[in-house]
């Protein structure tokens, strides 16, 4: 069978062209229709629906780069920035040129753990950015990413585990405990869908702690009397007795001027929760108020708000509770905690330590968990933090608790994780010392039994004292990362002193073999007999040529003499300076006197009574090596000495 190919006629060409044009027009109209619907949903913050329409518009879109950007933005604004990465990249590769797209693409790379790529992207953006706010934020992110190596080396003493029996494909987060129940927030169904992210509305749930950790799971129920059908309820916190609850509720928008979320309070009375009421004096009608947390004593309520006058996005505020249950006007926490970014999901540990989630501080992901130490946030490091969002850390007791994360490997959106805080291996420092005395003319030093030894701080405060045993031995317990001085005094002897420190001597947790570990340092104290008029050379006291000024290296050595004088307040000394035999006698005598006086002046400036020290220049009149020939022999003659001239009885 043969097929004969015929040349098409002009009329056929016109018909085919018209059909093609119609298909293109209809396709464009369909794409435009989906795009318009997507924009409408986007404006209404129904981001999940917007994404669906944008994806339908994308294949035939006239400006696909712009549609990819809109998809990326919808993911970002619905707190799914990791999913936005591919769409930001497609938008930029397609020629889209908005500055925020470049910036947020860097954040998306970071959220997916691509730290080097994120750093390169944000560094390039920072160099060309013209938007002052984005440029500042990019600079901050670049600095944050540059410090990640420090955070990654820090391993928090936690063992974590996904609560697989409790988690679902929906989101579970905001854990807290009331009596023997785990309270948490979830978008699990059944129920209406929230258009913002395609999940259900948030509700507050409860399950027994035993069920939460059971392999097969257990009964989960909605918290009675709190949840509604068309609003979000989440983030419950309780006073210590469990009878007062504060939580966040999404506002239905009927009250003019109110934003989406307010804080509500309810009381457990006669076996049921009372009708939740807006908390007076706390909520700002123009702000988003959320993430409440009571302190362990119930006297302080912390929460997060994006109200005006803050540092940037969401900031942490606190309000005190008086004896009648009334809350004071909120006040923000310090600038060390609140940043131009977002701080939220504040919780309080059993010991009163604050924990916050922040995207404005150096971290591994979008939201990282921080512990507040001395008023400053400290990143908790892995395994608690990850490239994802990690937030809402809650301590059930001193060593166990829960937190939420959307890290890779989870079961749903946000998952609940349990943690056990590993007991840190302990290090106990000790110093074991021996006390000797050395008498003039005796070759061997002898042990000093039954003699007082002091342990002093760097400032001279006596921290502890003990007596040597029959063998001259003594022991002190020491703190970690601390510096000390050991002292022993005896009439007729120079005070024995030795500095000792534990700073930098604590091994890492991996290097410690046991739960309790001892590290024992050694010390040797020697009481040297004081012999009046015996010259003692001060080593390494050097002067510039023809100068008497005290050089920095000479000051270090003179400080040792100052210490001797302070340790031995009953002695008075003569400080003498000597030259070699080169040069004129009178010149050398004058130079040595000026140098001795300069040294004495320095010692007096350190708090030594001038009546206790005399300056004497001997020039070349008292050589150690007579008729010196070599440079080494001349050096021995150029020296600074001191001798005890008087001992106060």
UniProtKB/TrEMBL annotation:
TPR repeats lie at residues 99-132. Its main location: membrane. It is found in: Cell outer membrane. InterPro entries: 6-blade_b-propeller_TolB-like, Bact_OuterMem_StrucFunc, CarboxyPept-like_regulatory, OMP_bac, OmpA-like, OmpA-like_sf, TPR-like_helical_dom_sf, TPR_rpt. The keyword Membrane applies. SMART domains: TPR (SM00028). One of its GO terms (cellular component) is cell outer membrane. Keywords: Cell outer membrane, Membrane, TPR repeat. Residues 531-648 form the OmpA-like domain. This is OmpA-like domain-containing protein. It comes from Pontibacter arcticus. The lineage of its organism: Bacteria, Pseudomonadati, Bacteroidota, Cytophagia, Cytophagales.
């Amino acid at each position: 069978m043969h097929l004969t190919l015929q040349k098409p006629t002009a009329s056929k060409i016109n018909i085919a062209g018209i059909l093609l044009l119609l298909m293109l027009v209809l396709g464009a109209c369909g794409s435009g229709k989906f795009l318009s619907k997507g924009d409408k949903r986007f404006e209404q913050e129904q981001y999940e629906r917007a994404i669906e329409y944008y994806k339908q518009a994308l294949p035939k879109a006239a400006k696909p780069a712009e549609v990819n950007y809109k998809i990326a933005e919808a993911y970002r604004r619905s707190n799914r920035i990791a999913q936005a990465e591919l769409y930001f990249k497609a938008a930029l590769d397609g020629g889209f040129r908005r500055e925020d797209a470049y910036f947020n693409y860097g954040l998306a790379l970071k959220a997916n753990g691509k730290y080097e790529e994120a750093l390169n992207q944000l560094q390039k953006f920072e160099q060309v950015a013209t938007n002052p706010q984005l440029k500042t934020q990019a600079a901050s992110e670049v600095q944050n990413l540059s410090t990640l190596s420090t955070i990654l080396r820090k391993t928090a003493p936690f063992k974590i585990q996904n609560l697989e029996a409790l988690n679902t494909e929906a989101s579970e987060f905001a854990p807290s405990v009331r009596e023997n129940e785990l309270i948490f927030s979830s978008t699990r169904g059944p129920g209406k869908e929230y258009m913002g992210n395609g999940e259900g509305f948030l509700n507050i749930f409860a399950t027994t702690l035993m069920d939460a950790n059971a392999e097969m799971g257990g009964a989960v129920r909605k918290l009675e009397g709190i949840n509604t059908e068309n609003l979000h309820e989440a983030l419950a916190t309780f006073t210590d007795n469990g009878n007062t609850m504060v939580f966040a509720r999404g506002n239905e928008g009927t009250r003019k001027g109110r934003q989406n979320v307010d804080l509500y309070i309810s009381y457990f009375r006669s076996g049921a929760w009372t009708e939740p009421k807006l908390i007076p004096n706390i909520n700002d009608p123009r702000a988003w108020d959320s993430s409440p947390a009571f302190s362990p004593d119930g006297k302080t309520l912390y929460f997060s708000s994006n109200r005006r006058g803050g540092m940037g996005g969401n900031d942490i505020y606190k309000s005190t509770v008086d004896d009648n249950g009334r809350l004071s006007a909120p006040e923000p926490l310090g600038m060390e905690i609140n940043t131009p970014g977002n701080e939220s999901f504040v919780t309080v540990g059993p010991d009163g330590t604050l924990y916050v989630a922040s995207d404005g501080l150096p971290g591994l992901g979008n939201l990282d968990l921080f512990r507040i130490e001395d008023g400053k946030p400290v990143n908790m490091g892995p395994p608690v933090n990850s490239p994802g969002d990690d937030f809402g850390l809650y301590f059930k007791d001193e060593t166990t608790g829960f937190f939420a994360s959307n890290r890779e490997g989870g079961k749903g959106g946000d998952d609940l994780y349990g943690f056990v805080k590993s007991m840190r291996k302990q290090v106990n420092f000790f110093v074991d010392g021996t006390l000797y005395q050395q008498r003039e003319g005796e070759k061997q030093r002898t042990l000093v039994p039954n003699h007082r030894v002091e342990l002093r701080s760097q400032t001279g405060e006596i921290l502890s004292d003990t007596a040597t045993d029959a063998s001259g031995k003594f022991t002190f317990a020491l703190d970690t990362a601390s510096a000390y001085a050991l002292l022993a005094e005896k009439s007729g002897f120079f005070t024995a002193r030795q500095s000792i420190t534990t700073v930098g001597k604590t091994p890492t947790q991996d290097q410690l073999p046991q739960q309790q570990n001892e590290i024992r340092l050694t010390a040797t104290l020697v009481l040297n007999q004081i012999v009046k008029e015996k010259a003692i050379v001060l080593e390494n006291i050097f002067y510039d040529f023809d100068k008497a000024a005290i050089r920095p290296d000479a000051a270090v050595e003179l400080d040792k003499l100052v210490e001797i004088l302070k340790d031995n307040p009953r002695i008075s000394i003569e400080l003498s300076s000597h030259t070699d035999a080169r040069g004129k006698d009178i010149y050398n005598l004058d130079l040595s006197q000026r140098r001795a006086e300069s040294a004495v002046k320095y010692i007096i400036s350190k708090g030594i009574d001038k009546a206790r020290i005399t300056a004497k220049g001997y020039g070349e009149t008292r050589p150690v090596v007579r008729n010196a020939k070599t440079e080494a022999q001349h050096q021995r003659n150029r020296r600074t000495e001191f001798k005890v001239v008087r001992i106060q009885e």
